[in-house]
Design brief:
Number of strands: 15
Strand order of the largest sheet: 1-8-2-3-7-4-6-5-9-10-11
CATH class of the largest domain: Alpha Beta
Structural class: alpha/beta
Radius of gyration: 20 Å
CATH architecture of the largest domain: Alpha-Beta Complex
Distance between the termini: 44 Å
CATH topology of the largest domain: DHBP synthase
């Protein structure tokens, strides 16, 4: 099909909403990454999402809303923890998992009895969702397994000709997908780390909010059961600040015929070697993560990433666990 590229004006927003209600797919910006939207109440439309992305059908989707009242139409049970998060945190880069109502079909939740719900902080995203006038299911708007897109130009690289339209908005400020907080069980647990940290949620809810440690188990979250975010070239990850080890590994790859790059917190250390900054801090690293990954795969043929999540280090802020999670899965847990 021919993909339309729409702007954030009244006419194009209205058209984007019409496309959603007609069962078509529309990519749209959020504060985290660009999403690939479909009418969450239309099973055929949701099925198109899996086809366009090449996404496994047992990987659930997040349902996006523009108004908190919609949560009560989608979720069958909303406990006190959920009420606190809804009232005091949302809209934000957070997704909450709750027991679902029958209006949300199994194709959205991959057969799970729970549904993931998100109200984006992005004003552009909420404009689009208001125009859609229905709950919108949306994974990231990329080919499954690729780095998520944080600009409409990156959406075009993966989705041109596969979907009806792209709403061309601002680059995404957060840069990594939302924190997924499971509130469908007795105790809250984070299924996917993001910009809203476990520490913040623990303080808010008055209970320790733990992070899921077994990603191979069947859990209620989108985007954690498969290798994700992978560049087209080999990638490894170093979790310590060992300058000599990084240089030796880089030189080994050069000897093997590669044109490698060091993706590090201080690229100026690596004089005479290809090196690019990971970011000034963990928030900056999150914002740039996927865009830099896509850039590096076009210029180099081996990525050596460094992310030192030490106490009092530059990457120990609220986005740190989210960035580390994406890096680990992008390199397939291939550590040096």
């Amino acid at each position: 099909m021919q993909t339309e590229y729409l702007q954030f004006n009244k006419r194009d927003l209205s058209h984007a909403g019409e496309l959603i209600r007609a069962g078509e797919l529309v990519a749209f910006p959020t504060e985290t990454v660009y999403g690939l939207g479909a009418n969450a109440l239309d099973e055929n439309a949701v099925a198109k999402t899996y086809a366009a992305k090449g996404r496994p059908s047992d990987n659930p989707l997040i349902v996006h809303i523009c108004d908190k009242s919609q949560i009560y139409d989608i979720a069958s049970e909303i406990n006190d923890y959920a009420k606190t998060v809804i009232e005091r945190v949302m809209p934000a880069p957070i997704t909450i998992v709750l027991p679902k109502r029958s209006v949300i079909k199994d194709v959205v939740t991959a057969g799970l009895p729970s549904v993931a719900i998100r109200m984006p902080q992005s004003a552009e995203a909420r404009q689009f969702l208001r125009a859609a006038a229905v709950p919108v299911s949306a994974p990231s708007a990329n080919i499954s397994g690729r780095p998520s897109p944080t600009t409409w130009q990156r959406v075009r690289e993966d989705m041109d000709g596969r979907i009806a339209a792209v709403l061309c908005g601002a680059p995404c400020e957060v840069g990594i997908e939302s924190t997924v907080l499971d509130l469908s069980r007795q105790e809250p647990i984070i299924l996917r780390p993001g910009a809203v940290s476990a520490e913040h949620l623990s303080q808010l809810l008055g209970v320790q909010v733990k992070l899921l440690t077994d990603p191979d188990s069947k859990v209620n979250s989108p985007g954690i059961r498969y290798k994700h975010y992978a560049p087209k070239v080999p990638m490894v990850l170093a979790l310590d600040d060992d300058f000599d080890k990084l240089c030796a590994f880089y030189d080994q790859k050069v000897a093997e015929g590669y044109n490698p790059v060091l993706w590090a917190h201080d690229p100026l250390r690596f004089v005479g070697r290809n090196a690019v900054s990971m970011g000034l801090d963990d928030g900056d690293a999150a914002t740039k993560l996927f865009e830099t990954m896509r850039m590096l795969e076009t210029k180099y043929d081996f990525i050596i990433a460094e992310f030192c999540q030490s106490k009092n280090g530059i990457y120990d802020g609220p986005a740190s666990r989210g960035v580390l999670d994406r890096l680990l899965r992008a390199c397939g847990h291939n550590l040096i």
